[in-house]
Amino acid sequence: MAAEAVIAAVDVMSIEQITASQVGMKAIGAGLAVGLTGIGTGVAEMGIGAAAVGAIAENKDFFGLGLLFTVIPETIVIFGLVVGLLLLFL
Amino acid sequence: MGVNISAPYIYVCTRMRMRKSKLLPKEEYQRMLNMSVSEITRIIGETEYKQEIDELGTTFRGIDLIEVALSWNLAKEYQKIQAITPGTLKQFTQVYLRTWDIQNVLTILRGKMQGVKTGKIKEILIPAGSLDKVALDRLLSEESPDRIIEMLKDNRMFPVLAREYPLAKEAGSFSRMENELYKHLYATIINDAKTGVKGGASFLAYIQLEIDIKNVKTLFRLKADKVDEEAREMFIPGGSLSLNDFASLNAIKDLGEFIDMIRANISNDTLHVLLDEVRTKKGGVQYIEARLTRVQLEQMEKMSKRNPFSIHPILVYLERKKYEVFNLRALARGKESKLPSEKIVDYLVM
Fold it and tell me: Which residues of B are less than 8 Å from A54 in CB distance?
């Protein structure tokens, strides 16, 4: 009974609908890749940023180094962005 | 650890570490040992004390300039730390800095009892605790010590002051009151830390270390002075030692046996190394005290590395800064009274 129902549902979906659904799934995947890595980057940068601001408050010479360390976790979101772009355009 | 540590904790702990790195290194003290008071003033005028030395340079000279500048700088630093620490760290820092309130109130009371001029008392006050400059000025403006006690009725130490002051007045000495105030302070600190607030356990661990070291210092001092009476009154409860252990330790006359007993009662590797050193090499009580303080600081450093974003880095800085000021003061005073360098070194915590 159940198998028959599935076959009937597939029969109902046209080729255009299936293609559109795949594009939608890709878009959701790309969104998740960028969004989740963004959150990961944020969490990682929280600690580094707080420590960097603390160090800069005491010694201004740490500005360059502090900034550099703070943006290192940006690589995580860049990976997410690359994955997202690959999903959408390949 | 990790995600559950908030950004303000990380910010403050990093600032404290940065400040700690700006403290004077050991080599600087070694250099200062060969300098005169004016040279020491010039050297510290080029460091973190510049602002105070410049401000006070017109009013004070020589040793007075160093003393007042060091006190002002210490008070400024401690007030600033109280201002930037967040949440429970602020609460712990404020509770911890109340030792300065006790010191200031006792200085005022002692000064007033002995008829010292208000200006002279003011010079030696360090407004680093909850009683700031304004509050201390208000206390100083009162002539009678009874009125000073009354004015402190909103302070947490008032119950002890009210209980002990009549006895102290009668005896003409504040030493018992001082002991009681410190005991009360430690009791309230332990209570506050045990209320289950975040970070309370690490604060408690430090306080117990401090109480242990204080009790051991008291025992060494009692041994050096050969005072047996009232030893029980000097004991601070809350550490590894019980009152009975303290009393029996004080009763031991032989140094070797005394050291063995301390080793058995307090488990601390750094302390054990020092005790073994004391056993073989005879040093004055000043030297032992300075070394015990060093043990305390080393242990604190270890704790602050184990808990990098807790109250420990703040306490390490507070203590290290305090001993830097003590060291500079000891150096300047030693030089002023023309003590030989070897004698001054014993008083320094390096």
Answer: 10-15, 18
